[in-house]
Design brief:
A 7-stranded mixed beta sheet has the order 2-3-4-1-7-8-9, sandwiched between helices. Helix content is 38%, strand content 18%. With 711 residues, it is α+β, with helices and mostly antiparallel strands. Helix 4 (106-118) links the parallel strand 7 and strand 8. The protein is flat. The longest helix is centred in the N-terminal third of the chain and has 29 residues, at 152-180.
Length: 711
């Protein structure tokens, strides 16, 4: 008997129908020598800290870093999962062969391997690897089953990713929470989540620091065409007005007229990120929603596997394109010109070197019926992009005209579409006003070099604009290119290995940041909350928040997938990073972070304007030797003077210290003595709370956790 394990019950039913397993059993389908069962997503997860030792049940700085000698997995604590796992466990222990029918990607491989590992499967394992769930694809996949060991590197990469996320996430979250959070607040740190937040915070700081400046430009109209002076923007109105006087004294003369014919290349086929970007631009769908819609279309057999990061098709798909085109009956008017000729084998579409596990997202040809409005829109994006890829290129004419008035140069450019080509596929699209402006043809008349005549000059007043806040579309692109601004499609393809996160996980990362209240959305724009800003300001370790450095880790995971980097090496590098991070943060200066709940903007006020306790009676003045004092925290060891702080002689266990400099001020011996004997200093001006640029007045005090804060 052969046991097939799918990732969802619906997929299991599709597979069972094709291979003839039609008899319903409890938790599986049987027939024709097959038993087809299923998981429903993740059944297993890495063990939690407390599963390794009771000591890790509690969040304590002194227990960090937590590094298990070996990482183990466990079943998720869910009754439905436990029941279905028992079915799988019994089936795999009494079968001749297991066929892994999980989603054909890294996450799907990890889900199934962990289940088989937990079930102690000893039977030989084959792998079903398909790019769509159509009957033909499933049948073809079963005729070409792969050996499971062909995907060992994929599993190694998935496992390394999970272990890396555990090591960094579990340790850094506890570390920053215990060191910097207030009350029961949790400061969540993640390998991909934190650099993504850092990009949003950096952009917001640029916007906040931006000071708009007025400028003036000289323009003139000659033969009903408006030219702009090709000089630097004028910063002083008086200079612009003098320029206008000068222009009125001289005629306009044409110095150059150039018209070049060119082509606008066809849009690339969709990978998941490009689809999410387009859906956000056109319909304001979140990345997470777009992923749900395209996944649903995949499970309905209407599109190919969606969690992909390539915009190319494998060359062996070329013979199948005509059939898919013919099946796209709702788009018959658009496909007719393509089907009138042989399908071209375009280099911009077919390239085996650019395809890894899967090809770009395309329709399967299955008729799109019974779809919700959102799914219809997503399907339409995929179908039109697929059709547009095979249309002729759009032919355009670009015109550049140069002129001068006296010694002032002027310029205007124009664009004319000569043959729409692939643009015909989108001819009936409803465009926004901005899109209309951008695409509006600017047809210029023919000018002759040397011609001259009267013109109408004017001054145009403008204002410099701040950088734009991220939308989900621009944030996804920034994650894909590790924060670099890349517009060229070829360059974007090359940079994907160094992006942060994977196409399938980026949507979830963004949702996590919203859920944690580190970011918020206003209309389509994404902004960091004060909590998010404070968290990034607190993190000094560049690797935790640098998109580029995190992109290097991502590249190593991809190299593991290709068999070009050792999983154990990756793990050891992360362990060392976590050790270094722990030492660094434990000795960092204390800083308050308040978690945003309903009104994140009030954070600074809340952090400073705390209810004041009654002052303790003043001690008579006397000289107190600091190193003669007992540690106020453990009360069992004296204090010792270090290079940067006074600390408990048993610091490794106790952790108490008072830095010589804190909140932007160097402490006097009296202030340190007051802290040790009274728990606080006198009121002083000039404290600078991290995350703000303003000086504040208050008392430095030891809180209940014997950490420093401003009262």
């Amino acid at each position: 008997m052969k046991v097939c394990i799918a990732e969802k019950p619906s997929v299991a039913r599709d597979i069972a129908a094709v291979i003839g397993a039609k008899e319903r059993k409890d938790g599986y389908l049987e027939g024709n020598g097959y038993q087809v069962t299923w998981t429903f997503g993740h059944f297993c997860t890495l063990k939690e800290p407390q599963d390794y030792t009771d000591q890790w049940k509690y969040w304590r700085l002194e227990d960090l870093p937590m590094i298990p000698p070996n990482f183990g997995i466990k079943l998720i604590n869910n009754d439905g999962v436990k029941k279905q796992f028992k079915v799988i466990e019994q089936l795999v222990q009494h079968c001749d062969e297991v066929i892994n029918c999980g989603d054909a990607g890294q996450e799907g491989e990890l889900i199934q391997r962990w289940v088989l590992l937990k079930a102690q499967c000893n039977a030989p394992v084959k792998r079903l690897w398909i790019s769509s769930l159509t009957e033909d694809a499933i049948r073809e996949g079963f005729n070409k089953l792969k050996d499971s060991n062909q995907y060992d590197n994929l599993y190694a990469a998935g496992s390394a990713r999970a272990i890396g996320d555990w090591l960094l996430g579990m340790n850094a979250t506890r570390l920053f929470t215990k060191k910097f959070a207030q009350g029961k607040a949790v400061l969540s740190i993640g390998r991909v989540q934190t650099p993504t937040l850092a990009m949003i915070v950096a952009r917001q700081k640029e916007i906040n620091a931006f000071v708009s400046e007025e400028y003036w430009e000289l323009k003139t109209i000659y033969r009903d065409v408006e030219f702009t002076a090709a000089i630097d923007r004028i910063k002083v109105l008086d200079r612009a007005e003098k320029g206008l006087v000068y222009l009125k004294e001289h005629p306009f003369e044409i110095t150059s007229f150039e018209r070049k014919e060119g082509k606008e290349g066809n849009p690339r086929l969709f990978d998941l990120t490009a689809l999410q970007v387009e859906a956000n631009k056109k319909f304001a769908y979140s990345a997470d929603d777009t992923l749900k819609y395209i996944q649903s279309l995949y499970e309905k057999k209407m599109v190919t596997y969606p969690r992909v990061d390539t915009t190319y098709l494998s060359e062996d798909l070329h013979p199948k394109i005509e059939g898919i085109m013919r099946d796209l009956t709702p788009y018959a008017a658009l496909t007719a010109p393509i089907l009138a000729k042989p399908i071209p084998k375009l280099k911009t579409v077919f390239d085996d070197k650019k395809v890894t596990d899967h090809h770009a997202i395309i329709p399967t040809g299955v008729y799109p019926s019974n779809l919700a409005a959102e799914e219809k829109r997503i399907y339409d994006l995929v179908a039109r992009r697929f059709i547009a890829a095979f249309y002729p290129e759009c032919k355009i004419s670009n015109t550049t005209v140069l002129g001068k008035v006296g010694q002032v140069p002027f310029k205007v450019t124009g664009k004319q579409i000569l043959e729409p080509g692939w643009r015909e596929v989108y001819a009936n699209d409803v465009k926004t006003e901005k899109e209309k402006e951008e695409e509006e043809e600017k047809v210029l008349p023919v000018f002759v070099v040397g011609e001259s005549g009267p013109h109408t000059p004017r001054i145009h007043k403008g204002k410099t604009s701040p950088p734009k806040a991220y939308t989900e579309a621009t944030l996804l692109r920034a994650m894909e290119t590790a924060g670099k601004q890349v517009d060229d499609e070829e360059m974007r393809e090359l940079m994907k290995d160094n992006g942060i996160g994977r196409p399938s996980t980026r949507a979830n990362i963004i949702e996590t940041l919203f859920r944690r209240k580190y970011i918020e959305k206003k209309k389509k724009n994404i902004y960091a909350t004060q909590t998010g800003i404070d968290l990034i300001d607190t993190i000094q370790t560049e690797l935790l928040k640098s998109p580029e450095l995190t992109g290097i880790w991502e590249r190593k995971l991809r190299l593991i997938e290709k068999g070009e980097y050792a999983k154990e090496m990756f793990k050891q590098e992360l362990i060392q990073m976590v050790i270094d991070l722990t030492v660094e943060v434990k000795t960092a200066t204390y800083k308050i972070i308040t978690v945003a709940v309903d009104a994140p903007a009030k954070k600074e006020k809340d952090a400073i304007d705390k209810p004041k306790k009654e002052a303790k009676p003043k001690e008579p003045k006397k000289a107190v030797a600091i190193e003669e004092q007992q540690c106020p925290k453990c009360k069992s060891h004296p204090l010792k003077k270090g290079n940067t702080a006074y600390g408990c002689a048993n610091f490794k266990v106790c952790g108490f210290k008072v830095p010589f400099e804190v909140f932007g001020k160097k402490l006097t011996d009296k202030q340190i003595t007051d802290l040790l004997t009274k728990g606080k200093t006198g009121k002083t001006k000039g404290w600078v709370v991290a995350g703000t640029n303003n000086e504040t007045e208050g008392k430095l005090k030891l809180n209940a956790a014997f950490e420093l804060e401003i009262e």
